[in-house]
Amino acid sequence: MFILILTPIYVIGLNIYYWGADAVEEQVYQSVDAQMNYYLDTMEADVEQIKILMLDALNDFNLNYLATISPVMRPFDKQRAITQLQQRMITIRSSNEWISDVTVYIPGTRIQVSAENGYGELAAEAVQSYLNHPNRFTRAPVQEDGGDLLLRVSSPNNANRPAQFVIETRLSASALADSLDYLTRYDSGEEILLRRTVDNAIVASSGSESYGERWMPANEGGRAFIQTEKKELFVVYASSSELELGLVRYVDSSLFMGQFDTYRKWFWFFSLTATLLIVLFSWILYKLIHKPLITLLRAFRRLREGDLQVRIYRRPKDDFNYLYEHFNDTVQHLHSLIDQVYRQKILVQRAELKQLQAQINPHFLYNSFFMLHRMIKLEDQDNALSFSKNLGQYFQYITRNTTDDILLIREAEHASVYMELQGMRLGNRMSLHMESSPQAINHVYVPRLILQPLIENAIEHGLSQTETGGVVEVRFREDEQYWRIEVRDNGRGMDGEQLETVRRQLSDEGGEDYEITALINIHRRIRIYCGEGSGLRILKADPGDFVVQIALAKEG
Question: Is there a contact between 506 and 530 (Cβ–Cβ < 8 Å)?
């Protein structure tokens, strides 16, 4: 959030800085460029004036007189003509402060007259060069000897004809350098070069530094920043196509951008400080708010997953510590409430289990004594004797075991005694058979009296109308999730409506309005003892093949 808020301010500040720097740069450039162009314009006008004076001097009487009849002139006349010609050269030299000398060369008579040195005799080896010099007229100043600039006019101005006389004006490089000093704005850190644009040769320079050897512009005018080993330079350059000369001005950018460098340093300092403050404030927010919230959310997540032992401990005394204390109190109170409800549920289950078992015992008692009564009534003394013995063992097992659960192998032995009792009563009407329980299932504990009532129902309801050939089988099975006990009979089974009613009751969809006996009794007790997924299942209900299965979940 802070970054989003500060970013526009940061961008605006950065743009203001660069806008200010560009404005200062533009002002400096406009000022320097105006001075340089004024200098070049002035120089163009002065050179043009010098060329006019030189061209006018070509028509001088004394010059033409010396060039044509000098050999036959009287010494006095010759000396007077030379003196008057020198005076004219001095006049041309005095017309401009840049001119160091004006010289007339007359190759035919080997005469040279200089405004500075007066009359002289042209050297023999120089005569031919002036007679046939290819550059008779210089439109722009030339630099032939690597020093001063020269302007030259001749008569006739035709390279195919020998020159009668040549006038040369020398522009002093030192005078040009002195004139450049007037352009200097800064006491130090600046250099101005006068250069030839055709070859970038330096004509004159002014300034306290030596930057001219490092960089030269390739075009006629403009500006640039160049980086040297120690500093950054601001370069402004302009040129004159008429003179084939240009000015290059090197300025230490810190002289006019120094204040902006200070602003830039403060700006970056502000940016770094703001960033550090944002990071610090973000860390404080994380430490004081975000991290405690994450801790609280993780605690709620563990609580949602059922961990009632979760507690949050925090040393600093702040608002989150207040929340943590109340969270811990709430979890503790919730744990107490759940513990109370859980204990009450266990007590209710145990009470219901006792009630269901109490319903089983009288139920079997009624049937057993009714069977014994019928045997005595039929005067079947031997079977009655054996039956009463087994019945005594049966009730002895029930009365001696006061626990709610029992090993499955003992429950199977008890059901086997019951099947013997029923087999003695039913005689040849049906065959009762129980598989031996597998070794792996012998350690399993189950509620008491869950197998015997199923066998009883198979006999009393499934095979009640069977005269001969009835079969009741008990089988033991095991898979990855369940231990299974199947009770199968070949009786009359159930029709669709009866089967739907029983299955609805077994799935607890039938409500609590039905009588809790028989199958429902066993199913409820197994569900209470072994948990969800356990209970009774009707696998087959067709006549001749009716199978009830007890499923005991291993996890339960």
Answer: no
- Angle made by CA atoms 83, 88, 90, in degrees to the nearest 5: 90
Q: Which residues contact 334 (CB under 8 A, 6 or more apart)?
A: 308
- Answer yes or no: is pLDDT of 360 > 60: no
Report the C-alpha gap between 62 and 111 in whole angstroms. 12
Helix boundaries (H) for 286-380: 291-304, 319-377
The CA-to-CA distance between both ends of the chain, in Å, stands at 54
**pLDDT greater than 60 at residue 208:** no
Give how far the C-alpha of residue 152 lies from the chain's centroid of Cα atoms, to the nearest Å.
73
Find, among 212, 221, 222, the residue nearest to 240 by Cα.
221
Range of weakest confidence among 85-94, 225-234, 257-266, 271-280: 257-266
Helices and strands in the chain: count of H runs, count of E runs: 13, 17
CA separation, residue 383 to residues 67, 319, 371, 424 (Å): 179, 84, 11, 7
Tokens of 74: 């009287």
- 437 phi, psi to nearest 5 deg: -70, 140
SS3 assignment, position 123 = coil
Residue 278 Rama label (left phi>0; alpha psi -120 to 50; beta) = alpha
Beta bridge partners of 106: 111
- Token pair, residue 380, equals 């079947």
Cα–Cα distance between 141 and 201 in angstroms, integer? 13
pTM for the complete prediction?
A: 0.50
Residue matched to tokens 């070069």: 193
Mean pLDDT of 483-510: 81
Q: Mutual orientation of helices 381-400 and 408-426 as an angle, nearest 10°?
A: 160
Does the pLDDT at position 58 exceed 80? yes
User: 55-69: buried (b, 16+ CB within 10 Å) or exposed (e) per residue?
Assistant: eebbebebbbbbbee
